Amino acid sequence: MSLSPGSERLTLHSQSHSPYARKTIVFAHEAGIADRLAIIDQETSPTNRNPAVFAVNPLGKVPVLITPEAGAIFDSLVICDYLDGLHGGPRLIPSTGPERWHALRLHAVAQGLCDAGIALRWETQRRPEPLRYPPLQAGQTAKLVESYDLLEAQAPFDGPIGIGQIGLATALAWLAFRVLPDFRIGRPRLTRWYDAFSQRPSMRATAYHGETQDGPAAIAIAG
């Protein structure tokens, strides 16, 4: 399919098992502009430097979107905000009013789920066992459980699809993918919403796969 003038493809440095990267791709699908992304899958890890990613993001993390007017932009919410200006449909990040704050609040919870889940994986799987810290494991688990309970009781799932629902669905899918504390147990409302959202074409087209590739030093310590 040919693209209209001024709608050149944009390079997205991504990762097949990153919840932050998947969020931006699902967002592009929901905005109807997924065909504008040229996705380059990258492996990144705090213990495994990827020079190609560091060349466009000094933090060495994905996602990174290469844009014609602003160069490389990073942080998944910033990328989604940029993508939201490239389509003619209703905005997926509301610009004003209560809808904006409800969407961004839900997104913030989703972002926090990913952050806590990643920290929990370090304390239960990735960090060499002698260096793991059980109180930190318990603290990160509590963040997940408390967030699940808040979502079950209060989250506004209804209404137009937006950044909040996209962020939440990709976060919950990642937590399930990594077999972290189960959000389904005792939370039927959250489970029903997630199961329904997971059937959307944007989610079905972007399933997680792959494993984190840690660097030789980390592997040597763990071994």
Major sheet: order of its strands?
2-1-3-4
Strand segment tally: 4
**Looking at CATH, which topology of the largest domain would you report?**
Glutathione S-transferase Yfyf (Class Pi), Chain A, domain 2
Percent of residues in beta strands: 5-15%
Structural class: alpha+beta
Rounded to the nearest angstrom, the radius of gyration is: 18 Å
The number of distinct structural domains comes to 2
Order of helices and strands: EHEHEEHHHHHHH
Helical amount:
40-55%
How far apart, in Å, are the first and last alpha carbons?
50 Å
Summarize model confidence as the mean pLDDT: 93
Q: Treating each run of at least 4 consecutive H or I residues as one helix, how many helices?
A: 9
- The poorly predicted ranges are 1-5, 217-223
Give a description of the structure.
- This protein is an alpha+beta fold and 223 residues long.
- The chain has two domains: 10-83, Glutaredoxin (3-Layer(aba) Sandwich); 97-204, Glutathione S-transferase Yfyf (Class Pi), Chain A, domain 2 (Up-down Bundle).
- The chain contains nine helices and four strands, in the order βαβαββααααααα.
- Strand 1, helix 1 and strand 2 form a beta-alpha-beta unit.
- It is globular and about 50 Å long.
